[in-house]
Amino acid sequence: MERCLGDTNQAGSVRIPFPQEQAWLEAAQTFIHETLCPAGSDPDVQLTQSVIDCVKTTWLSQGKNQGFPLPLSYSFVSVQDLKTHQNLPCCSHLSWSSSAYQAWAQEAGPNGTPLPRERLLLLGTLTDLSGDLEQESRKGDLYVKDNTGVLICELIDLDLSWLGHLFLFPSWSYLPPARWNSSGEGHLELLSAPVPVCPSTTSPGPPSPLPVLYPETASRLLRHRGKLRGVQPNLAGKLVRVSALVRSQKKAHFVLSLGGGSSPAGSHVSIVVQIPAQLVWHRALWPGRSYVLTALRVVRIRGHCYRVWTTSPSSHLLPLKPECVRELELELDGPLLEADPAPLPTPSSSQDGDREPALIRHSTLLSYTGKVTGVLSQPAGLYEVDGQLALCLAYQQFHSLRKVVRPGVSLELQDVHLLQSVGGGTRRPVLAPCLHGAILLRGFSCQKPENQSFYQAQGASLFEQLVWERQLGLPLYLWATRALEELACKLCPHMLRHHQLLQHSSPGNPSLGLQLLAPVLDVLAPPGSTRRNAHKEILEEPHHCPLQKYTRLQTPCSFPTLTTLKEEGRCRAWAAFDPKTLLPLPESSHLTSCQLNQRVSWSWLSLLPATSHPAQILIGVLAASSHKGCLQLRDKSGSLPCLILAKHCQPITDSRFIGCLVRTEKFQLVIERNVRSNFPSYKELNMTGFIQKQQARVYIQFFLADALILPVPRPLLHSATSLTPQAEPTLPDGPHIEQSRLFLLSHKEALMKRNFCVPPGANPEVPKPILSFCVSGSWLGGTQRKEGTAWGPPEPKGDENKDQKVLLVFRGSSVRWFEFLHPGYVYRLVAPGPPTPLLFEEGGPSCIPQRALELAGCASCLTVQDEWTLELESGPDFPAGPDTSKALPKTSLDDLLSGNSSDSLVSFSAEILSRTLCDPLPAPFWAKPGGTRTSRASVKLTVAVEAADCQSRPHLDIYIKEPHLPPPLGLLPGARVYFSQLEKKISRCHNIYCCFRPSTYLQVLSFPPETTISAPLPHIFLAELLQGGRAPFQASASCHIVSVFSLQLLWVCAHCTSLCPQGRCTRQGSTCPTQTSVSQASIRLLVEDGTAEAVVTCRNHHVATALGLCPSEWTSLLESVRGPGKVALQFTGPGAQPESSAKVDEPLTLFLRTLCTSFSVLRPVVLSFELERKPSTVTPLEPPRLQRFQCGELTLLTRVNPKIRLSCLSIQEPKHPSSLGAFSLSC
Ligand SMILES: [Zn+2]
Ligand SMILES: [Zn+2]
């Protein structure tokens, strides 16, 4: 034995092996017996010797063998060993010197890592059988097989005669499956031709020349019937094309085309290969070489009119040796087939072409050889070739290539489509092979595959679905793959697992990713288009496939991350911020510094998705914050607060939306801007230096009804909601143990910081106010226990007559339920865990001051524990929503506007007209650095109260002060809001206003309209204003200025509003920082329109219009007042002498007096106005008074209506003065 295995040196004498060699040889012997000899047989000495000889020859062939006749540093490796122990990619090159390996490794380039070299000896049988099963398991793949197993392999130039023989593989790479993919299989890349262990005797050629047909004859033969009965001719020719290997569920096939060397280019013949044992030919075929295919027959393809050549089970593929063949003589003058397939129906006929819109582009069909330089997306089959082209393999079935293709791989692409400027965000030209052309491997990569993370490999089957089921064209496919990757980056893995987003879509289990894209894809590529037909795509001439024509894609939409959205919104809001636009001239020129800064201090902007290109689509997971109590959309980048309405006027009540994926194209991105500034006057408004601080609050408003809501599979729910994992109760496996109780919510209080007593046993530190809210309601029935999946019957209550009213306190993380609780709805309070008696009965550890309980009229209160949950209860007994008429109790308009303060809590719906920040002036806030100002500021909302029975919408001011600041989301001009339990107050001038209080509940009913259409004010007769609260609050009237009551023009210090004669502030001990003064003006006019009279007050720039002065006249009038600082005129009545603060005979006074009594002032006008006083004093109308008039000797007593007091909004000259005639009285 030893002799057998020993080495015969060059001299021919036997050398005794060294102990090392001895050990190596023994190991080899064992390995060969176990791994390569037929199982259960005795050691095969001859085989063993052949293997060792083969190894030695190969080893010595590298030249530098380090003085050893045996590769002692190499060890044998079986297929099983590779599979189980080789967890890292590696390569082994028995025949290579280290310098050869170095040179090869250099190809990896600076960015790639070459495969590490292991010293392993691999032997095995090359086969196309994956297992012991026959035929059926042949799919055209190639394997290396030994006694321990099989391993799929790739080989560049296969010789079919190698199949079934034992080989030594001198140079190979092994790539194990990705670490996460435990079920995956590794594969082998055989870098050089295998070395046969037992050199096969070269089979002699056929004894006599083989009769063959050449392509031209063969293709003519297809058109003759009956000539070939019983004959299976052989075909010879040069291989001009190989199609892709097409695998369907039933069978696999490919098509090869042979052409004649001298025959015209068009004359080639296609041969369909679909016998499983012949599929492996696909790896052996090399375009440009000549072959003979034996024993062919003609078949008609089902569903097609043409006939093709196909192989029979006894067919062989042989290299063409001209000396071994002779042309078969055939007489071909028989009749042609009736259905001559030659003039094939051309689907893309010229008529078709004429109708095509000009936007349709045609791809170029070409052949390309290049090297893969990058992986753009492996699951989507997208690669970079030669640094500048994209390669999309998705339109072929490229499963086997997916493993091999990586940077460094050389490919030959035959008949590949080149698509240029496909749009949709893809810039480079794209090479995309369809089934017609083959992707031929021309060189393996020396690079280690990039450490592919689990998620990078996800989605392959979804991407396939996009091409093969949704039939997306290439531009849209590229966009969709990128969009899906973008979505994965946005959401995975925190919100969703990659496999959840990118899973294959099946009818019962649709892919989340596809659902998110579907609305866009449905528009651009409506589903249900025809499926691809492989036969047609490969065989039909002219060629027809999905890659042939395309249109440039306009990027349909983008899915910005929430952080991007927030930042973009913020940037756009500040870019659009311009105090001069917020305060246009001439209004701003009359404002004092304080008024200016107040008006600049709050503003808002709403951005609509349609205003960005491409349109933005909002995607996030809905969460309820347990810290802030607000709703949020979250993605991996961050979160955005949001205000959500289920639909118009309907709040969000169903807490099951928590954790759902939300997608909407209709939303408003709201940016509220808070600015602290110290502009001295309007002249400095464009100087940004006066802005001291700016802050923006960004949030989103949308209707759930406009959104796509996708539930996320359960196990992840907790990570998507605001619940911290600790707070999530650890539920035992099996049925959940829970108990619950129903309650009807009657009132909800504001979410704010409140003080609570320390529960016994808790940290006895000084309690800090904590964010909390309470709801009051009543229990509906007793506690119920979970029985299976349903709730059991309610437990009988201890005392049926006991008051069922309850106050529920939400604090800590249970504030997350705030946005879901609304009056009028029935909720189920669910407590997990084993049944606890009286769990929902008693006060528990919470401690509400007794007075609060009394106020709420509740007998008991209960603190909602962190782990408890709330569900909206809807069913036949409890309709999902409250009866809208009952739901929102409203104070009647009369009660609301009455001066009677007995009922100080009021509720109403209103539209917000304006929102301003006001602070307790006059302390100059810039004198006091620090945040004192913000703490004392309050927000004033001016609202138009909606009353069902009346078109007039009285205006009210609502003040929001600490601790209700910042105000809740959505209190924006234009929004409609329901306010409940506001505190009504009456000012010293008998105006009614409201204030927020802790019990205030508010519900936004609708968002500000996306486009503001300013409806013209109603045109009325003044007498209509005497009809009490039924008249509109703002209106316009055509009337006549009868007389001027008073006129005042003054210059005040812009800072302290003291009078400024000669432009100097007169304030005692003035320390005003600037000597800027602003003009202010007011005029009181008597107007009438034939139905009633009204006193109108016009201020500032409206005075100019009232006086009929043009801007330059107005400016010079104001300038002339600057000297005295003030001019005030009082007119006691029509025709009466004016009383003036200035001397009567001063020219200025004289001028004004003349002006105010001239027809240029006393004239017909169109007046827009609002009621001067807030409704409180208007509604309880004073009755007409009896007034005494002296008319000569006579004293007349007549009823006079009280004068209506109006504020001027604008004055316009009448368009048709004559039309006023009917109502205007001549003066
Ligand atoms: Zn094609
Ligand atoms: Zn001053």
From TrEMBL:
Keywords: Chromosome, DNA-binding, Nucleus, Telomere. One of its GO terms (biological process) is positive regulation of DNA replication. GO terms for molecular function: G-rich strand telomeric DNA binding. It comes from the Eukaryota. It is found in: Chromosome, Telomere; Nucleus. Its main location: nucleus. It comes from Ursus americanus (American black bear). Signal peptide: none annotated. This is CST complex subunit CTC1. Belongs to the CTC1 family. One of its GO terms (cellular component) is nucleoplasm.
